[in-house]
Amino acid sequence: xxxxxxNRKLVYEILLELERSEQxxxxxxxxxxxxxxxxxxxxxxxxxxxxxxxxxxxxxxDHVIAQYAKTKNGRVKPAVRLLxxxxxxxxxxxxxxxxxxxxxxxxxxxxxKGLGGLKGFxxxxxxxxxxxxxxxxxPEEERAFLSVFYSMPEWIVDRFVNAYGTEQxxxxxxxxxxxxxxxxxxxxxxxxxxxxxxWERQGVSSSASPYLSGxxxxxxxxxxxxxxxxxxxxxxxxxVSSMLAVYAAGIRKGDTVVDVCAAPGGKSVLAAELCGxxxxxxxxxxxxxxxxKIRENAQRLxxxxxxxxxxxxxxxxxxLEGCADVVIADLPCSxxxxxxxxxxxxxxxxxxxxxxxxxxxREILSAALHYLxxxxxxxxxxxxxxxxxxxxxxxxxxxxxALEPVPIRExxxxxxxxxxxxxxxxxxxxxxxxxxxxxxxxxxxxFRRKQ
Length: 451
Description:
It contains 16 helices and 12 strands. It has helices spanning 6-20, 25-35, 41-56, 58-68, 78-93, 99-112, 119-132, 142-149, 154-176, 192-201, 240-248, 266-275, 288-300, 345-348, 351-368, 391-400; strands at residues 182-186, 205-208, 215-219, 235-237, 256-259, 280-285, 306-310, 324-330, 372-382, 403-405, 425-428, 442-449. The chain has 4 domains: 6-137, N-utilizing Substance Protein B Homolog, Chain A, CATH 1.10.940.10; 138-177, no CATH class; 182-237, Alpha-Beta Plaits (2-Layer Sandwich), CATH 3.30.70; 240-449, 3-Layer(aba) Sandwich (Rossmann fold). The strands form 2 sheets. Strands 5, 6, 7, 8, 9, 10, 11 and 12 form an 8-stranded mixed sheet that branches. A 4-stranded antiparallel sheet has the order 2-3-1-4, with helices on one face. Helix content is 45%, strand content 14%. It has 451 residues and is of the alpha/beta class.
C-alpha cells in the first residue's frame, strides 16, 4: 500500500494536537506553516485548507459520520474520527481532490498511524459517503438544520435568529463559510498601483477594496513577509472592519491617542498614520510578546509617534490622565463576528462567557475614560454581534458617564450604514448587505466626552 502524503500527515498531527490541547487553531497552524516554510505554496495551501475546513465543518462532518459509521455502541475512536473528518471533508468540499484519492490517502494514513486494523472500516465509510454524498440526510427542524449544515453550535444559531431573523442568519452563516482573502492597507507615501503590479508578478492576485482606498484583497500569498514592499514598510495587514472602526473615530493630525487593548496593533498603526508625526499614540496590551510585535511593526512602518508598553487595561496609567483626544477601546469579546476567520471560536466560547465578558468590558471602559480629555472622543468597538457586549454596553456608557453619541454615517461606507449610524453606532454583519464584499461582524460606537 502507498504511503500517506506528508501534507495529510501534517494535517492529522495539527488536528490531533488541537484535540489534546487548548491551543488556538490559527496560532498552531501558522506555527506549523512557518516551520515548513520550504514547502511549495500549493502544498501549504492544501494543508491550510484541509486543516481549517475540518475545524470549521466539524459539526457537519460528525453528522455525516454518525450516518455512515455504524458501530455497535455508536462510538468512534477519537483518532479514527479525525481520519474520517479529513476524508469526508475532501469528498464533500474539495473538488480538486478525486474521491478515490481522498479514500485511498485516508486509509494509508490510518495504516501509517498504527490504525491498520481499522482500515477496512475507514475505507467502507468513505466509499459509502462518496457514493451517497448527494443524499446526505439533514435535520428537518429549521434551527437544527442551520446548526448542522453550517456547522454552528445551536445556541449561537438561536442567538442569531432571535436577533436578526432566519434569512439574515442564513446570509451570515453562509458568509462565515466563504473563503476570505488576505486584507492589507498600503501606507502613506507608497504607490498602491505599483505595489499591486509587483504582487501580480509574484503570482499574487489582488483586487482593490470598494470600501477604502489603498486597501487590497490578496489571494495566493506565499507569506506576508515575502511580498514586495514588506521590508520597506509599504503596507500592513489589517481587516477592513478594523480599519473602518478607526476611521469612525475621526482622528486628526496632531491628536494624542490611547489604544488600551491594542494587540495585534492594526488600529494603533492606522491611528499613528492619521495623527502624523506631530501626534502621539500610546499602545497598551497585556503581554510582552504581543507588545513586542506592535513595536516591531511600528519600527518597520517608520512610526516613531507610536510607543507600546505592557499594561492591564483595567489599570490606567495615571501620568496620562486627561491627555487623550481619542481613546480606542477595542475590547476582548466573544468573537462571534469573526467566525469566518477564526472557526474554532464557535466551539470554545460558551453562553455563560458573554455575561463575564460584558463585566470585563465595563471594567476596562471605566478605566479607559480616565485618559479622555473633555471634548475628546471614545471609540468603543468589538468583533462580535452580541447585544450584551455591544448595544447594552453602549447604553451603559451613556447612562453612567458624561458622554454623548457622535454620528458616524459620514465616516463609514454608505452601503454598510443603517439608521443607527446617525445615532453614533453601527453593527456590521458578515454577509450583509448581500452582494457586497464581506466584512467581519464588528460593532463600532463613538462618543464625545462632554465639556
